[in-house]
Each structure stands twice: as structure tokens, then as C-alpha cells.
Give the backbone structure.
Amino acid sequence: MDMHALKIAVIGGGIGGLAVARACALRGARVTLYEQAPAITEVGAGLQISPNGFAVLRALGLGDALRGAGQQARGIALHDYRGARVVRLDLGALQERDYWFVHRADLIDILHRGALDAGVTIRLGAKVHDAGPGPALRTDAGTQSADLVIGADGLHSVLRPALNGATAPFFTGQVAWRATVPAPGSATAEARVDMGPRRHLVSYPLRDGQLMNLVAVEERAAWTAESWSHEGNPDQLRAQFSGFGPAAQALLARVDMVHQWGLFRHPVAAVWGRDGVALLGDAAHPTLPFMAQGACMALEDAWVLAAMVAAKPDMGTALAAYQAKREGRVRRVVSAANGNAWKYHLSFAPLRFAAHSVMRLGGLVAPVRMMRQFDWIYGHDVTAER
């Protein structure tokens, strides 16, 4: 296909939407992005961009911008909830060492400017009500047609039902809290995971160590809202994690605003693209946050979708190739994230002691092997695929 002749519409101004808009525009397509919010902004939270995600940003010409805005990660430290360190994973053992902590708002800003610089037209306040049949979408301004419509509009995508029918998510029995707080003293450039009975706390530095990002996950029997913007009570957060050690308490004491969201499981979409319509990121394959790969999977999707549209002779072939290249990898990542939660939440004390002892021994005997077990995730570079 001649990319210069293609008109592409992207729904959603998040990480995946902005990335795929730039990726397609750099290849010559005329791209319009529709974002329902009145501005491209993001609430305060942190992200981990591992080497596989950074490879996409680098290929998009945004690697230096991320290096300037982020903080390079040196390690991942697992602790017992009372404070004792279990094992530290040295990120220096990775073949590719571009593992970064970045404020979500800073990454959105980098991608937003990148999309504009590539010539993307961004329509703000443009809520998409529905889509189809075929590559078309409807906003308050009327029906907009394109050669390709890309749904990068998250968990509640308007395009996903058009391709896959309605699917009902189910609650995982886990609720996450998230906040950013001023760092108490000098912050080590590593992610720390405090693992406790039926709950865990993740923390890592942002913005040159001035802020700490907190994600706290607890098990619950029920939850109704699936939202990133539900405001929580800081005192309730502190009460739920009151048994954690001094380092955790020092961070929790600084929380003055916190958000909550229920963690739901959605099945990976059976159809990612058809009839000039495609899905990427959470619209196609929502993933739980226990491998820190949601943003990176969206970045990988964005690159591969743009590459297939540019390389294949027709849209049907391109969309089929996109799903074929991505689905197996994404399902494996989603499965790994689904299975990771129980490792952090062991409530039976003897089992927790045994599991932590195995991790501690592995860190002493074979630390590089422990880190290299993640090579299949971090060492994968979609921009190098032929």
C-alpha cells in the first residue's frame, strides 16, 4: 500500500494512540487523532518502560526525549512486608539496559509533541460514540471516514464490540491504589516490592528522585468501579498497609491524595483487525499491572501495526499479519502478569517463608540467571523484526 495515499483515524490520545499516530505519520499517512478530553493530559502516576518498550520509542525518534525526562532503573528489590530484603535483581545484567522510570504525564507529553511534529492532526473534545460498519466513526460533528480506523481507546473501547461483540469483564478480587509523594531523602534508582499477606506495595523514583511512585494492591471480596480516576481515602490506605515495615510507612505517611481502581480481567480479543478497523493496547488485550508491561505492549502494538500497514499489499493482509505477529507474545505476557500476583500475596506463613527462601538462594547462587529469565520480555525488539 502507498502510505501517502492512506487516511488513518486514531481513537484515543493515550500512549498507544499517540505512538501509532506518529508511527503512521512518519511513514507518510495522513493521520487524525480523536481524543474525547479537552486537552492531552494525564493524571499523576509513574510508569516502567523496559528495554522492549524503549526500543520502540528509540525507533520513533523519541529515545533521547525519554532519557531526558526519565530516570534509569538500576535494579528491582523484593522485600518481605516487614522490611527484610529477599532478593535484588540487577538490571545491569540485562543485554539491553534502557530500563526507565518515567512519570506518565511526561511520557504523554513526549508522545504528544512527537505526534504533532510528525504532522498528526489532533481533534480534542471529540468523543467517538460508535464505529462501523467498515472504517468509519461517529462523533458529535458527524460521521468521519478513513481507510483505517484504529481503536486505541482502552478498556472501554467503542471499536472492540464492533469486532468482537460484547464481553463482560470479571473482578479479580484485587484493588490497586496509586499515588505520587515527595521522596523522603535520596531515592535509590530501583523499584522496590514489599510483599505481604494478600497485599503488596511497589515504589520507585520519578523526576530525578524528587518524587516516589506508589502502587499498592490488596485483595478484596467485591468492587464495582473499573476506573483510573476513583479517588480513595489516604487514611484507609494507611490502615490497610499498617503492618508493613518502616520504609513503607515513611512513604505512606506522605500520601495526601490517592486513587483506586478495581483490577478486572478482560479476555484477549479474538479479532484485532478486520474491514479497515484495528485495535491495539488495552482495547485488544488489557493486562494486569504485575509485569509492568501495559504501556510497553501498547508501544509494541503501535510499531507493528504501522509497519504491517506500510509493508503489506492490502489492508486485510496487513491487519491479519499484525494480529499474527502480536497475539502469541501478548497472550504470554498477559498470562505472566495474571500469574504474578499470587507470588506477592502469599498469606500462609510457612509457604511465604519457603518461597522467599528459594528467591533469596537464587539471588545468592545464580543472580544473573534470575534476571535473564525475563529476556523473552525485555530482550524482544519489534523494531528489528523483518
Notes: Residues 3-47+105-168+267-341 form a domain with the FAD/NAD(P)-binding domain fold (CATH 3.50.50.60).
